[in-house]
Amino acid sequence: MADTTQQIASLEKDERVREMSPLRKALIRPELGAICGTILVFVFFLSIAGDSGMFAPEGMINWGTVSAQFAIIAVGACLLMIAGEFDLSVGSMIGFSGIVIALMTVQWGYPVWLGILVAFLLAMAIGALNGYLVIKTGLPSFIVTLAFLYILRGLTIFISIATTRKTIIGGVKEAAEGDPIAWLFGGKIFSGLFVWLADLGVVGKFVAGPRAGQPVVEGIPMLMVWAVILVVFGHVLLTRTRFGNWIFAAGGDTQAARYVGVPVNRVKILMFMLSAVCATVFATCQVMEFGSAAADRGLLKEFEAIISVVIGGALLTGGYGSVIGAALGALIFGVVQQGLFFAGVESSLFRVFLGVILLLAVILNTYIRRMITGER
Amino acid sequence: MSDTLIELDNIEKHFGPVIALNGVSVTVKAGECHCLLGDNGAGKSTFIKTMSGVHKPTGGRILIEGKEVRFESPRDAMEAGIATVYQDLAMIPLMSVTRNFWMGREPRKAFGPFKFFDFAKANEVTMTEMAKMGIHLRSPDQAVGTLSGGERQTVAISRAVYFGARILILDEPTSALGVRQTSNVLATIDKVRKKGIGVVFITHNVRHAMAVGDRFTVLNRGKTHGTAERGNITAEELQDLMAGGQELAELEGSLGGTV
């Protein structure tokens, strides 16, 4: 027994474990790669496009809106990826939900709130079906949701042509007037604040045209509000709740999680549903803003969501990641896309730039993750 | 010391035409370390899974404190106080020690209408429980992947003990470990046994079994042939029973008795 006591004493201070400084400890986190990327991207665009209006209020609303769009779908993709699955049907889901709302309201004359409600219910049902199929068949979600990428897109175009002979359905804005919940998606908040700021001269005013005298920034689009709400919700859910622990466990090791009683199937199906709901939030905001729905909306959005999530430090195979990281990934994505436009750079270079950032972020993230998790 | 916690009587398990278990009888008493020995393919894993509610037995009875039970799921077995620490599935390396320790049983604290994971309590309990087993963590947020194999087993064992396990099944906890880590795990088994928990120690390493075992049962080709008390059986006899005798005897001769 004396032997074991000695061993225990020696375990207390293992000479091979180096003490970590608090600074290092605070820095080594899943989001570190995305934080560095964000700083880099902002420094870069401040230096090449600082005087182009990119960082004026209207410029910020511009790239902020684009980033918010990415962020909304990235939250769903992030939590799903941490739970160990993919959803490649996000883009098609966006097109589908938009058409559902437009058909319900414009074509069939139902109130907009009902159209939105039905779109969300359908999205949840399709998300649940995705999840159910993945779990029941044991097929990779990559395949199942790839099938739904085609099924949903084809169905969307078919339904839209079969009922209206068009793939673009307009007139949603008119239908949404006075609707009790349409403003939640298409509205803008803090308009008064921007009028006041414009009077102070902080924000510019239109000098000519029908809106002369109004501030150039109307308000904060609800799209951004949704992005913030979803990011905060996702982050708190993942890091501060029991369910969040189950998400990590489901993606980290399905079998180990099942053995300790984590309801893995329920967690995964719910995350598929959340992914579809996020796509529908995106679609609803877009439909309300444009006043129309088109069957080809949301093309390639699933990859943009996944790229944001991966830039944000999540592991493609699940069990590891951060919603804050994914949101920063979305911010990087939006700033780069719009920033190159502000900087007057040939737009085809956007993809080159994006590819380089993706590669750098993933290399850095892999290195950080190894430090945290002891992977070899 | 002689109260029987669980009795498995003549357990059979068939998978279609394959007979994985063909009459396995084991009893586990409080405060003992019951070693279940068997070579690869002897049916050890099937037996553990039957005992922990993953598989339902095709035949035979399971009695807990004299009452017959049927486990419909691993949950049922867990509620009956049977905890299993699987060889490779014990922990999720990407997650922190605290998250692993509480996985499936996270403590919660209400904040208004919402309930949050109570990290303050979870971290504190994890640190104390680990310290009791002789492992001093740098921090409860450290990922399990940064721990050694023996430390991971210890986290899993202390988790099971903390959550009130009365019967602890350890599936080859020492098979992938080095010498020093093995002795740490064996020391942990000894501590657990002293708390009055019945430990089922599955291994194919006779020396590890002899080091801590109170009773020994050998599983061979899906069957058990009685249980031996410590002191009534030698390592060589156990080895022979496991391998089914002759062949190994010949092999051992050519290897100079080192197996």
From TrEMBL, chain A:
Q: Which domain of life is it from?
A: Bacteria
A GO term from the CC aspect: plasma membrane
Report the GO molecular function annotations: transmembrane transporter activity
Q: Which InterPro entries match?
A: ABC_transp_permease (IPR001851)
Localization recorded for this chain is: Cell membrane
Q: Identify its membrane topology class.
A: Multi-pass membrane protein
Locate the transmembrane regions by residue number. 26-49, 61-83, 90-110, 116-135, 142-161, 181-208, 220-238, 269-291, 303-336, 348-368
Cite the entry's keywords alphabetically.
Answer: Cell inner membrane, Cell membrane, Membrane, Sugar transport, Transmembrane, Transmembrane helix, Transport
Note the Pfam families from the entry: BPD_transp_2 (PF02653)
Role according to the record: Part of the binding-protein-dependent transport system for D-xylose. Probably responsible for the translocation of the substrate across the membrane.
Q: What PANTHER family does the record point to?
A: ABC TRANSPORTER PERMEASE PROTEIN YPHD-RELATED-RELATED, XYLOSE TRANSPORT SYSTEM PERMEASE PROTEIN XYLH
Question: Can you say what this protein is called?
Answer: Xylose transport system permease protein XylH
From TrEMBL, chain B:
Residue limits of the ABC transporter domain? 6-246
Q: Which UniProt keywords apply?
A: ATP-binding, Nucleotide-binding
Gene Ontology MF term list: ATP binding; ATP hydrolysis activity
Q: Which SMART domains match?
A: AAA
InterPro entries referenced in this protein's UniProt entry, alphabetically: AAA+_ATPase, ABC_carbohydrate_import_ATPase, ABC_transporter-like_ATP-bd, P-loop_NTPase
Q: Name one Pfam family in it.
A: ABC_tran
The molecule here is called Sugar ABC transporter ATP-binding protein
| Species this chain originates from | Roseibium aggregatum
